[in-house]
Amino acid sequence: MAGAAHCSLQVKRLLLDPKFEGYKLSLEPLACYQLGLDAAVAEVKLRDDQYTLDHMRAFGMYNYLHLDSWYQDNVYYVDQFGRVMNLSVTLDTALQKPREVFRLPTDLTACDNRLCASIHFSSSTWVTLSDGTGRLFLIKSGKRGNSASEKWEIVFNEELGSPFIIAHSVSFVKSDMHSVAVLLLRVEKDELDTKGSGFHITLEWVTIAEISKEGDHRYEIFKRRVLQGKSVPHYAAIEPSGDGLMIVSYKPFKFIQDEDNNLEEENDDAKATNEKKDPLYYWQQTEDDVTVTVHIPQDITKDDIKVCFSPDNIRVTLKDQPPLMEGKLYSSVDHESCTWIIRENKSLEISLIKKNEGPRWPELIIGDTRGEFIMDSSQCSEIAESLMHLTSEVMNPNPEKENPPCNAQELEECDAFLEDSASLCRFDGDTLKVTHVINLGSNQYLFSVVVDPKEMPCFCLRHDVDALLWQPHSDQPENMWEHIATFNALGYVQASKQDKKFMACAPDYSYAALCECLRRVFIYRQPTPLSTVLYNRKEGRQVGQVAKQLVTTLEASDPILGFQATSERLFVLTTKTLFLIKVNSGN
User: Fold this and answer.
1) Which of 72, 86, 224, 484 would you call most buried, defined as having the most Cβ atoms within 10 angstroms of its Cβ?
2) What is the CA radius of gyration of the chain?
3) Ion transport: is it a keyword of this entry (predicted)?
4) What are the pLDDT digits (tens) for 83-92?
5) CA 281, chain centre distance (Å)
6) Which has the closest alpha carbon to 163: 124, 212, 110?
């Protein structure tokens, strides 16, 4: 990340409400409709060897319900017979049974180490589909959500190694060539990781392009690239142009080069390590002078050595070789008083007399890292004594001190979360390097949502008590991450929900919602104007708008497997039932 631009997220103050008074619990009943499924959802439970937190995040908390953002109120799921089932809603009171739009050609139960089947809608007419066994399908679907125009046709079907789930995909045209880029997520065994979890995460970026050969149009793999990291990414998405990739993760990802490059890098690392282990010279200092010791070859005599002193520079050469040491000294010396001798152990000892007595030199030659500074015991004691006032052997020695640096009492248990140092990185598809990086610090990742299917998915972060929604703009370097909406106090509210499983929000930002593992769904409507007059008795003023919290309890004993939000309704999927909760009335 050496060449990456370190950026920050710019909050729009106009989208914040410092006077937000909280959510009022509303007893308003919400219309809830339910559809019994012909066959159970194809849930894949974690195996005994999938025991890490990363396995739970990637597969155990997988959202089995897929929202087609290109068509309003259109959801899909895969059932235990390998059928891709669709429900398209136009009228809640006239719901049709979910209909089959595609059937996976492979027997899902035949693969022992399979993962859940996954779907991503690359465009209004293209779909990427994985059966969970390691096979990827690229499908031309036609206009979806309408049985007359929707026909799923396989145009690419290939085994791509170990099982994966699809994290994201995009469809784009470049140089008159149609391509679909797909991001595949795997959690793989890492034999070299003996101290950690024993697994690593890979994101494979596969580009499938339309190739024309002698009038025959077919789709083939055009490019495959692999990133590796040590934690499942919270967010991973390909830019609409296919030129880059954005990842939000707790631990960093990097591209894995081919083996030859890896060997070269390892050799370079080994050389660098050796250089560090064997310094070119050692140096010591007092308030008055600096002593430098350089090891020289056995065959070098006094006549072969040339040491040139000047007030600010030094140069040491052996025979006719390039200078062994050369450069500007950290501070001036009395060059006429500087000397050098050869010791019995074949080492060259140089004595430099400081022009200004007292100040310590942090380095000998400016910018030269080939030397090693050796500090004697008296200097160590002196430095330790000067730093004593910064340390204490007693925990919190002065708790009554005025203006303490941190008041732990202001933090609550629900404010603590495991990963307090996630980062957002943007990778370039050509150089495979990080171009932009943002340290998210305490801005906890909450969820992602597609607001505009032609843009990248938005991600929602906690900022203090609020939840802020950010829209990436890969084509706008000056405004790459735009703050587009705020869900008041949602950051604080969601932290207190210990059993939450999924979070979502409406694409029009009218509400946010979260569900627990079983039954309960919480809806947080954003402030809306009141039709009646309401007074705040404490402050004696009129309240113009109010934000509501609504709670729905589903009539189901099965765990919630899928959760999606549209501007009008919430879709909740359990093993055998699909629930529709009407949140907003249509225009």
Assistant:
1) 86
2) 32
3) no
4) 999 999 988 7
5) 43
6) 110
